[in-house]
Design brief:
Layout lengths: L2 H25 L11 H14 L16 E3 L5 E6 L20 E5 L28 E3 L4 E7 L11 H18 L1 H5 L2 E7 L2 E6 L13 E2 L4 E4 L11 E6 L9 E2 L1 E3 L10 E4 L8
Parallel strand pairs: 1-12
Antiparallel strand pairs: 2-3, 2-13, 3-10, 4-9, 5-6, 5-8, 6-7, 7-10, 10-11
Helix pairs in contact: 1-2
Length: 278
Amino acid sequence: MSVRKIAMTTFRVLQLAFLALVAADVLIGLGHPFWLNCLPLVLAYVLITVVNRWGGGAPDAPGVAREPVETGPPVTGRWSALNSPADRTPSHGVHAYGQTFAIDLVAEPEPGARPGFRVLWPIARRNQYFPAFGAPLLAVADGTVVRTHGTQRDHLSRNSLPALLYLMLVEGSVRELGGVRRIVGNHLVLDLGGGTYAMYAHVRRGSFAVREGDRVRAGQMLARCGNSGNSTEPHVHFQLMDGPDPDTARGVPFTWHGIGVPRNGEIFDAPSPTTAPA
């Protein structure tokens, strides 16, 4: 087991210890100041801060980034980028789960097609209102499917202020306790060879067109975009990693043929694949 895996497991154990101490103190009284119950939680977040900020280089050379790997885009059509590594790294604020160079994509087939953020109402929307929901996810290169997980439900959007606060203060913490699968939701990992793995997160439940062990061709449909895991709305979360397990992998930079790395808010058109969908 790697140091990173041990650290993430310890983080979750400390969180559970905090909850157990609080419950025991309330139910039977432990006879010590209440703030002492918070020590495991403080240690947990000190630990996760160190792990999350740990450099994103190769395992044998921490902090030394690899050259970008050129692949095709994971989608086709008109999309917009969010949380792009072209604007900052780590793109999602942390190195954890191999996210150093991750990118989020939302479908923008035409202006106004995607519902915007609302302060109060509607609190949540059904996924069908978002054009990204159900969009095909494509193999960015020839590879082998090495990991799939597709049992989690696609929840409602979290793109109002009350729903976003709920996600940040309650749901996100619960998902963190549940481990990487509860964070990235339904997901698929491709082995592209050369120590590079592509991960597609927040996949739609029941949409997988491939299984572990399948060989796929560039442009082949793998699954469909969903809204599972720690997600505010249906979108594509894509990243390259140096291993198949997001809990232990480090991020690898990417660039897409003919597109590069779109910046935050940049709208781009991804061409149709040359390989017919499965």
